[in-house]
Description:
Elements: E1 6-10, H1 21-29, H2 32-43, H3 49-58, H4 67-72, H5 81-90, E2 93-102, H6 103-112, E3 117-126, E4 129-135, H7 141-154, E5 162-166, H8 172-177, E6 180-184, H9 188-193, E7 196-198, H10 205-212
Amino acid sequence: MMDVKGLLVMDVDGTLVQEEGIDLLAHQAGVGEKVARLTSKAMNGHLDFSSSLRERVSLLKGLETSVFADLQKQIKVNPGAEQLIKELHQRGYKVGLVSGGFHELIDPLASALEIDLLCANRLESKQGYLTGRVYGPIVTPEGKKEKLLTWANQYHLRLNQTVAMGDGANDLPMIEAAGIGIAFMAKPIVAKKAPYRIEKRDLSQVLKIIDQHGKDKKCTSF
């Protein structure tokens, strides 16, 4: 069995995929504009993530769970994702997803992309309808960082063998903790603080950053 050489942990909504899953759900529930405003404030660091998520999920109460299958078809993976994951696997990396979004939308995608590790929120439902509550603990910004640390420890990796990437304020703790921290098409607060920035919609640029890291080059934007 190949030794694990490194670990990439990335956000899902706005990073791996172009959409925000909760905004898609909110549109189906007829509360799209209200939820989109709250999502934007949370991703820009203007609202506490956990309380914001609970408020947004509460607005989904009564939505039929049958919408998950239709919404999964609307989710678009960002360009370069398949190339990135395939290349990292060939290099001996594990690839993990940590998301403030929901297993109900992410699980089929993670399976199709052969993702190794996954942590996300779950929506509570009863008799085929959402209750407006999250089931179990919420994936918080610190929780994302803890998953990075836990998975690195699981594979006996040092932090300098880890990469973390995201676009929102809730991704900053893991971006700042990782050996290589990357802001992808990110909100201003994230782009300002992340060591590396990808400013075009191409996830394969991560490979260039990994290859450059540690060399005597000044470029931090790709």
